[in-house]
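Fold it.
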Amino acid sequence: LEVKRSGVVYRELLSEMSGCCCVVCTQTSEVGVVERFGQYNRLASAGVTFLCWPIEQFVGKLSLRVQSLDVKCETKTLDNVFVDCVVSIQYSVIQENVYEAYYRLDNPKKQITSYVYDVIRSTLPNFTLDQAFEAKEEIATSVKESLSVVMKSYGYLILNTLVTDLSPDIRVRNAMNEINASRRLKEAALEKAEGDKVLVVKSAEAEAESKYLSGVGVSRQRKAIVDGLRDSISHFSGNVKGTSPKDIVDLLLITQYFDMLKEVGGKHNCTVVFIPEEE
């Protein structure tokens, strides 16, 4: 009935006045706000909206798209390190609450920024610098929970919050890099020392095993020589009558002596000096 009465008024005004009918276009994913005599009247959806000026005015519009806001906040950690924390807020206007979004809040970005500052500066000081890097998801969750409750009453929906950067001072970063480099060098030195230790132990074990096997070989060689001499003495004593074991040993020694002389003489680069034995 009110619309009909208003329609009648419009027709009466149009019959008396010229040029008072205005057309306003609203883009897709936007919603306009129309006031009549300075009071909220209706919303203008996407498309063409007819206004009766100056009774009605198109006072503004809101975007229904998802918007992003990056908030940079400086605070300090539990170990007194100042860091710059960048939080990305993704939000949008609740279509059913466009009235609250337009009339209850003058600057939504400033309001969101203030709440982000409050949450970050009350959350990060509970963590050390190393813990803060590990708790980025926890910090983002705290910001989202706090903003969602507050901004919903103003007609805004907080879709997601992301801690995109957590950056300490350049001198602190350099110090952290030096600490990590020193730790890595220490670990590398320990690993190298452990490797050298393994090499020395294995080398000593190999040398001991080699000497043991060499000793076993020499022992077996000497045993074979003794067994051969014994067999030779037994065989020679049985075939030659009147010989004693001493005669046979002397003969073997002389034979080995001449074999030695032959071996030494066969070397072209060997010089041998024979010194007569004094009587």
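The CA atoms of residues 33 and 59 lie 6 Å apart.
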